[in-house]
Structures are given as C-alpha cells and as structure tokens.
Amino acid sequence: MVSPEEGAQRSGEPRSLSGVILTPGGWVHGKVEFTERILGIYGGPVRAPGDAPVILPGFIDLHVHGGGGADFMDAGGAVDVVTRHHARHGTTSLLATTATAQREDLERAVTEIGPRLRLRAPGTARVLGVHLEGPFINAGKLGAQPDAVRPGSLAEVQALDALARVRVVTLAPELPGHLELVRELTRSRVSVQIGHSLATYDESLSALEAGARAFTHLFNAMSGMDHRSPGAAACALAHAENTELIPDLVHVHAGAIRATLRTIEKVHCVTDACAASGMPDGGLTVFGKPALKRGGAVRHADGRLAGSALTMDQALRNLVSIGVSLSNAARHTSTYAADYLGLFDRGRIASGAWADLVVLTPTLELEEVYVEGERIERAA
Ligand SMILES: [Zn+2]
Fold it and tell me: Considering 272, 313, 339, 356, which one is annotated as catalytic?
C-alpha cells in the first residue's frame, strides 16, 4: 500500500509516503515528501484516519536502558544493538539511559555512547543524549536500580557530560544538598527529574521551585498519593507540566494512566525498557542481577519489576486501547518528548523537520519506519 516512490532509494532524492498524516494542524489525507528532512505535506484535511495507512511522527523515548538483549551499560557495541532494536519498533530518537552504577562503570558506558551522538549508525535510532537515572537517588526507593547510590555531585555530572551530552538527570531531591544540585544542574541546562525518591509533597514542590522539570516514571519508585501525607506523585498531579509515564499496563494501572492524562497535559510516555525488550520469555541478566521475562513483565527474583519489555509501538497501541485518541497518543509518544527537550524539528510532521516517520496499518501495526529519511528494516 505505502511504498517509497520508485527510484528514490538514493539519499538526497526526495521520496514520498501516502496515507493519512498527523500534522500539527490535524489529519491530512495525502502525501508527505522528504529527503532527510520533510519537504512538504500535500493533501486535504480529514477528521479521522479511516481505513488509510496512518503516518505519525516517529516515536521518541527519553527513558530506555536496553533491548534486543543489550543494555547501554554494556560495553562492546551494545549501543547499536539497543538503538537498532528500538528503531525497528518505531523509535526514531531516544535518550540513552544509564543505571545507577559506580563512577567508572558510568564513565565507560557514556564513553561508548558519546560517538553515537555525533554519528548515527545505519538502521538505528538517533541518540539525542544521555539520561542519568541516578546515582543520586534514595537508597530506600531503588526499584530495580543497583545500590550504587552516592551523594549528588555536579562535578561528576560535568565529567560525564564532557563524554556525551547529559540532557536529563533523575535524582531524589530530599537528600542533603540535592536542592542546590537541582539549581546548579538547571543552570547548566540539564533537565532535572524527581524519581527514585521518598520526597514529601513539600519537598517535591521545593524541587520544582528550584527548577526540576518533570517526574521519572510517575508512580513507580516514588512516594505516592496518600491523601493525608501526599508524596511526590501527588505533587506531580498537583503541579507538574511534564512527566514520564510507562504505559505497558504492568507498571501503572490503566486507571492511573487515565487520571494522569486528565491532569497533566504534557505526559511523555517512555518504555524504561531493559535488555529483555525484544527477547523471548525466559531468564536473562538485568541491571547485573538474574531476571525472568514472562507475559510482558520482567522481574528480579524478589518479584520487583526490573524495567519493562515495552516498545514504543506497543505503547501507542496500549494508550489507544484504554481510550486515548490516536492523535493524543501520538503526542504522548513523540511530540511532547521533543518539546520537553526543546527540539522543535522532531516529534512533528512539518516542513523542515527531520523525516522521522512511522507508517502504521489502520489497526496500528507498524509497517514502515524512517529515521532522518533512512528506511529502517522492519521488526521481524
Ligand atoms: Zn529506568
């Protein structure tokens, strides 16, 4: 149905895709023409996709650790394995997310990520930067993170940033000195997120006032919504403009997802995927410990979730399955993440934007993926 125009395989020559296209102004039935950037969108407005192929902005995942059996913390080519796996599921750009780890392990991982910020390997998603999940988190809310927690250090973030651009840091603001770190990181144009935290409502609010911008995997690994002693999650619902959310329907109940989407406009959905994403059910190592993948969930031996097995195409389908409109689901899986990073030439199908595109069937099965105009081999 949808195919690149004949003879347009050579880079630099425009190609086009036909279908119903989600543009910033609404759905357009017609075609999008592009090289590595979008050249134009031609056609007429329609109210809904109907039974035509659906063309959406490529997915953007700002919290992803691994996939295809590899983890960004691994050495030896892991970066390409992870970014290829997720590109095949429609993720066109992402933040390589590190786990809480010893400083030398973080430095080694970020050293491998750095070159991929400058040169994207064929067939892979664009790495936009690094998300440091910890190590400045609360040892009482580790979730699946290894216990390599240590006091916040601007110097450590700066050293890692020199190896690969750090765009997001997840930290627990209630720990000594961390509010000042929130201010310092914010001044350095790093987005601080509250996560793996036992912060009270008031402590969370102080962090937002100090510059923190969002919450990391809202509801998971944070103080909650108790009505007499509200924690970080309650502060998010009361005040946040942005938040992450994992819509695998395992980490967060559909009802809590609906409540969040009703309350916080710019939710950017993330996978928080671990190495098990894209792997068959069975045992494997996640964050340095044995884990078992079964039925879409990945757990360590103690029963705790060890990250997710999610991909962004499934995230989109999950949102639609719980009643989110397709256009809003596309914003939650792409546009708001780009906006959050201040990247207005990604996450939207508009002239001049990068040609990061996904084509889906009317039932939202992924058909084609383009990263910066490059056609990606489909998922098996
Ligand atoms: Zn994570």
Answer: 272
